[in-house]
Amino acid sequence: MMTDVMEQSGGPTRPGQPAAQGAGSVAATSPTGGHTEPAEQQTGTEEPSASARIVQIRERIDEIDNALITLWQERAALSQEVGATRMASGGTRLVLSREREILERFRVALGADGTQLALLLLRAGRGPL
The whole model's pTM is what? Predict the structure, then answer.
């Protein structure tokens, strides 16, 4: 997994990219081992309590990401089953009123980004149009 890190110069870089002139090189930390980085490079701060809190927050973010991925996959599978069941019974491939309902629900809750998220969810379940 590739993550952005901050160099001492303050500019973002990706692990493996050459460091900016005058800055130290940044080593990537692999989840399975490899180079280790000082806490500042992992969290963006040298302050121990802030660094510890950032690590704690990121652990929760990772848990949420894992749950989102699991739910995304479950939703896509259920949506595919709905489509297959509908088509096997002689129905249509899509029910546009249902798709509009989902788009609107996400738009109201999340704004423009919600619409984009809903479009991705719909595509994952039914495939591209």
Answer: 0.66
